[in-house]
Structure formats: C-alpha cells, structure tokens
UniProtKB/TrEMBL annotation:
Identification of the protein by name: 2-alkenal reductase (NADP(+)-dependent)-like
Regions annotated as coiled coil: none
Residue intervals of the Oxidoreductase N-terminal domain: 1-109
Keywords: Oxidoreductase
Subunit organization: Homodimer.
Stretches assigned to the Alcohol dehydrogenase-like C-terminal domain: 157-285
Pfam families given in the database record: ADH_N_2 (PF16884), ADH_zinc_N (PF00107)
Organism in which the protein naturally occurs: Phoenix dactylifera (Date palm)
C-alpha cells in the first residue's frame, strides 16, 4: 500500500505491506471484471513519478495515498466476466501489488499466447520494457549498420536489450553502468563491444572520448543529468538521441539543468522523446519477432527476482540505487 506522497528520495517506509481478510475469489455477478492471481510484479522507474503529488513530469496517473500500488505484472485468470478473458489463461498488463486483483477495466490486460517461455519474461523482455527497447531503438534511433551506439543504464531491463538489438544490427555498442559487476555482464553476457562504470569515471566527457574517438551516432538515453551533458559534447553531426527516460532525475524535486543543448543546433542532432504506451497495439507483432531470438539464444536476458510481496518495497527502491542486476521483478506466487 502506498502511504503518502513522496518528496525527495523514495524509501521503503513510503510503502507498507497490509494483510486484509480473504477476498471472495469470484467476479461480481454481471460485471465485466477479471479476477487475477498475481504471479510476477514489475518494478519500474516510472513508479517513482506516480508517487509525487501533481508531478507534471510523469506520464501515468498518481498513486492515491492509502491505496494499493499498481503496476505492470503477470497473472493467471481465476474468474472472468469479460468475454475476452477465460479462467485459466495467463495475462500481462496493469495489475495491483497484491496477491489477488480484481481488474474492473481490463483494457490494459493483454493475453499471453506463448507460454513455452518463462512467464516472468512478460514483465521485461516480452512486456513493456522489451517493447520500449525495440521501438525506441529501431524507430526513434533509425539505426544503420556500423553506427556508433551508446546506451546508459545499459544493464537494466531496457538497456540490456537495446545493446543487443544494436549488436544484431551490426553496430558498435558501448554501455555505461554503475558497478564493475555490471560492466563485466555487459561485455561478457550481452556482447557489448565496450562498457564502463560511470561511478568510477571522474570525467564522463573524457570517458566517452576514449570509447568514441570518432563520436557517437546514436545515444539511447535512460539516465539524463551529467551523462546527457557529456554525451552532447560527443555526438556526431546528424546523430540521434532517443530520450527513453532520465532515471537520475526522478528523486529530485526539480530536474537538473542541461548545459550543452546548443550542440543540438550546431551538430544538427535529432533528439526525440517517446512513450511506449503509444505502441502497445504492436505488442503481439513484437513478441512474434523476439521469441525466435530468445529460443535460438541470439538474445540473452537477465532478471533480478525478489521473493514475495514483503520484498517489493525494497526491490522498487533499489532501482534508484542501482541494486538491481538486470530486470527487477517480484515473485508473488508460483506458476
Ligand atoms: P533499470 O532496470 O535500468 O533500473 C534502473 C537503473 O538505473 C538502475 O539499475 C541503475 O543502474 C540506474 N540508475 C539509478 N539511479 C541512477 C542515477 N542517479 N544515475 C545513473 N543511473 C542510475 O530500469 P528500466 O530499464 O526499467 O528503465 C530504464 C529507463 O527507461 C528509465 O529511465 C525508465 O524511466 C525508462 N523507461 C521509459 C519508457 C518509455 O516509454 N519512454 C518505458 C520504460 C522505461 P546503474 O547501476 O547502472 O546505475
């Protein structure tokens, strides 16, 4: 349960685990609701914006103090009054951070067709973050073979996939991450050409000059702040920046200023933001494209699974300290 609006850094104590009486495990007579047994819950950086009162930076509705937190997840249909969902089917989409959820408006639930892959993947590679990486890279970045690509927050849910999509396109790819362990994973598991620990670099501009002596063609922006400033200095003429998110800013009351935007003009850089919500209608097509890559082991994927609802607040807060190694999710129940 979300306790109250947050200012500054979100903490575990901003949420609490509450036990209530057993709910009736049936949808109300005559309703079109869907009753879910939640299996996996997704921890996503945008949830921090939903905790700020009247945050104009967030793209989703605010959480209400005292109400159950909502977010993306995977569940099994226990009962349904909706013609599109049947008992026993698996779905992904927006659900509650609770064991059972009654979804009264199932427009944001999507049926899972392929169940021969781990269902937890629908919180990540086959769900919202996967589609984000795919659309953001292939469409917003307009990549070409051989181009120089930089990805920040590269070992996370979105970043690990962007880097691999770029490698599959034949690009040179460098990622930044916040620990040596993550740097090692980027190079040896996800196949990035190079990676660096931004926390150990006293001068981000110098680090980028080292890895991109000829400049950057594509920057996949996940963090914002000082990284964006350093990147702007290193972009090539007619390069592209896909603004996916700015996780370094989400716990700040006011976003930091960016100093080097003038390079958008002088280097003719195209910088474009996007929201995956606008692309959900393409999810089925996306899954059909990605599943063969997973089965043929052309794409590697890493999850960080917290066990049980009690661990959910710590798992969510951990995103902002970089404690997650790979896609952070919470296991609520066995499949
Ligand atoms: P991640 O799995 O990458 O988790 C967040 C990571 O961000 C942490 O692991 C940490 O990694 C890094 N981080 C946290 N705080 C900072 C900081 N102050 N400075 C630099 N890095 C930091 O999250 P996702 O892959 O789910 O999301 C990545 C980005 O994509 C976010 O900005 C998110 O908001 C955005 N997003 C946008 C969508 C859209 O539609 N536009 C949809 C989904 C996500 P490290 O150890 O490397 O610091």
């Amino acid at each position: 349960v979300f306790k109250d609006y947050v200012t500054g850094v979100v903490e575990e104590s901003d949420m609490e685990v509450v036990t209530t009486d057993t709910v009736q495990l049936k949808v109300p007579e005559g309703s079109t609701a869907v009753l879910l047994r939640n299996l996996y819950l997704s921890c996503d950086p945008h949830m921090r914006a939903q905790m700020t009162k009247n945050d104009r930076r967030g793209a989703m509705h605010n959480f209400l103090p005292g109400s159950v937190i909502s977010g993306f997840g995977v569940g099994k249909v226990l009962d349904s009054g909706h013609p599109d969902f049947k008992t026993g089917e698996y779905v992904w989409g927006v659900t509650g951070w609770e064991e059972y959820s009654l979804i009264r408006a199932p427009e944001t639930l999507f049926k899972i067709k392929h169940t021969d892959v781990p269902l937890s993947y629908y919180t990540g590679i086959l769900g919202m973050p996967g589609l984000t990486a795919f659309v953001g890279f292939h469409e917003i970045c307009s990549p070409k073979k051989g181009e120089y690509v930089f990805v920040s927050a590269a070992s996370g849910a979105v970043g690990q996939l962007v880097g691999q999509f770029a490698k599959l396109m034949g690009c040179y790819v460098v990622g930044s991450a916040g620990s040596d362990e993550k740097v090692n994973i980027l190079k040896n598991k996800f196949g990035f050409d190079e990676a660096f620990n931004y926390k150990k670099e006293p001068d981000l501009n110098a680090a980028l000059e080292r890895f991109f002596p000829e400049g950057i063609d594509i920057y996949y922006e996940n963090v914002g702040g000082s990284m964006l400033d350093a990147v702007l200095l290193n972009m090539r003429e007619h390069s592209r920046i896909a603004v996916c998110g700015m996780v370094s800013q989400y716990n700040l009351e006011r976003s930091e200023g960016v100093h080097n935007l003038i390079f958008l003009v002088t280097k003719r850089i195209e910088m474009k933001g996007f929201n995956v919500i606008d692309h959900f209608h393409r999810h089925s097509q996306f899954v059909e494209t990605i599943i063969p890559h997973i089965k043929d082991r052309k794409i590697a994927y890493m999850e960080d699974k917290a066990q049980g609802l009690d661990s959910a607040p710590a798992a969510l807060v951990g995103l902002f300290a970089g404690r997650n190694v790979g896609k952070q999710l919470v296991v609520v129940a066995d499949e």
